[in-house]
Structure prediction request, 637 residues.
Amino acid sequence: MAVTEATAGGRKDAATRFLWPSLAVPGTAWLLVLFVVPFYGIMAVAFSSQLNILGQPIPAWNPLNWDFTVMGQVIDQSINGTYRSAWEHTFIYTGIAMSVCVLVGYPVAYYVARLARGNRGLLLALILAPWWINYLTRMLAWVGILGDEGYANDIVGFFGFAKVDWLGGQWYVVVLALVYGYLPFFIVPLYAYLDRIDQRLIEASRDLGANTFRTFFRVTLPLSRIGVITALVLTALPMFGDYYTNTLVSNSPTTVMVGNSIEESIQSGFSRGQGASLVLLLSAVLLIFMAYYLILTVRASREAR
Amino acid sequence: MTTVGIDAPGAEKTWDDTGRYVPPPAAIKPPKKGFVPPWRNPWRRPYVLATITWLYILWSLVPVLIAIQFSFNDSRSRSSWNGFTTEWYCCGTEEGSIAEGTSVFGAGANDALLTALQNSLTLGVVTTLIAVPIGTALALGLTRWRSRTSNVANAVSLFPLVTPELVLGSALYLVITTLYTQIGLGRNALILGHVTFSISFILVIVRGRLVSIGSEFETAAQDLGATRIQAIRTVLLPMLIPAIFASAMITFAASLDDFVVSNFLFGDASQITVPVLLYSAVKAAPSPALNALATILLMGTLTALLLTYLVLRLRRRGEGGSALDDLAGVEM
Prediction:
C-alpha cells in the first residue's frame, strides 16, 4: 500500500515537474523568435559588408563576418556630419519636453493622488482618458487646431497679431506636441507611486513642526524620487524613438530627429545599414534607461514573491 | 500662531478638587482669527494645484473634442468650422454632397477607410485571441517555475516592455524582409508584431494578480485531493479571470492604437490599419472623414475600456477600493 502510494506520488511528480516550464515555453519561444532574433537581425544588418543586386545589405548572421565600416561612418556622421543635427534635436527636444513633463505632471499627479477628495474618481478617469485615446487621433487634433485657418490662428488674430505658420517646422510646436503626446504617460505612473506614500509620514512631519513647503521638500519629494525617475524613463523611451509626432506637426528638415532618420533609412532599402546602425546607437543610449527600469521591476517582482 | 496661553509666565496655576488644572480665565486666549498665511495652514484648500490640474485636463482633452467636432464639419476643411453635417460618417453620396465618395460608411463610401477599419478590428481580435493564452501561460509558468533558465526567460520577457516601438518595429521589418521572407509583410506580419508587444504586458498584469492570490488556494485544493492540474483549472484560473479579461481588453485597445509597428509591417494599402491610414492621409488627402474615422476608433476603444471597468467593478464589489485604481495600476 505504502509502496503504491509512493510510486503514484513519484509519477505525479514526474508529470507535473514539467508543468511550469512547459507553460512558459510557448511565450518564451515566441519572444526568442520574434524579439531576440530580430534584435540580432539589426546587428546582422548594421555590421554587414555585402550588398545584394538591389544595393541592400545582406545580413551577416555569422559574427565572424561582421564588418564595422558602416557603423564607423554613422558614428562619424553623428559626431560631425549629417546625423549631428538629428541627435542634437532629439536630445534638446526630449530634454525640454521631459522638464515640462515634470513641472506640469508632478503637481497634477500630486493633487489627484494626495489632495483631491470628493471628485477624485472623476479626476482619475480624466487623467487616464488620454491614455486610451489613439495617439494619432490626438496629434491630428493639433494638426487641425494649428492649421492655417485653425483655432490657434483665430486666437492669434483676435489679439491682432499676424498669422503664424505653426506647422511649417517650428521647434516649439514639436516640443509642444511631444509634451502633449507623452505627458499622460508620465502622470499615471507617478500618480500610482504618489498614491502609495504613507500619509502618516506626512502627518509626522507636520506634527514635528515642518510647514507645508518644508514637508514637501524634505519628506514627500525624497519619497517620490523613484516614482519620478520611473515615470521619466517610461516617458523618455518612447519619446526618443518618436518620429511620427515630428512628421505630423512639422515634417521639415529643420526639426528632424533621430527617429526620422531611422525610419527613413530603414524603409528606403539602400541605407538600411545606416538605419540599423542608428537603431543600435539609439538602443545604446536608451540602454541606461532600460537597464534602470528593468532592475527596478525585477527587484519589485522579487520582493512580491 | 494659535498657542493657547497655558503656562503663560506669571499666571497662577490652580487645580480643582479632582486635581484637574483650571487655567485662570485670562490665560485662555482664543485662537487668532483673521489672516493665516496659507503655508501655515495645512487644511487650506489647495486652490493652486486644483487649478493646475483642471487646466491640464482641459488642455489634454479639449483638442480631442475639437477633432470630434470637426468630424461633423460641413466643409472639406479640418480647421475652420462651417456648420453641422453627418455626411462624413455615412451616406454622403448625393451629387454635390460635401463628402461625396469619401464618407466612412454607406453606399459610395471611401473603401480605403472602411477597409482600414475592418483590418484594425480583425487584427485586434486575432491578436487578443493569440496573445492572451500565450501571455497567461507564460505568467503562470514564470511565476511558479524556479530555476536559472526561468530567470533568463523572465528577463527576456520583460525586455519588450522597455524597448521603444521604433526599435521593435525596425527589427521586425528587417528580419521579415530578409530572414522570415515566407511570412511576408502584410496581415501575418502585423499579427506577429502585435502579439509580440502584447505578450509582455499581459504577463505583467496576470502575474501581478497571481502574486496577490498567492499559492495557498492551490495548496489547499491539492490537500483536498486535487491534482496540480485540477487545482489550476478549478481554483486558480477562475480567480484569474478578471485579470485575464482586463489584459484581453487592454491588448485589444493597444492593438487598435498601435502605429509604429503597424507602419513598418503593413506592406500594401489593402492591409493598412486605421492609425497608419490617418498618418499617411493627413498630409496627402486631409478631410473631416479622417476625423470621423478617428472618432469611430475612439468609440471602439472606449467600449473596450467601459467593459473592462465594469468587470473590474463587479469583481471589486464587496472588496472595497476602486476599480479605477485598478485600471491605473494595470498599465504598470
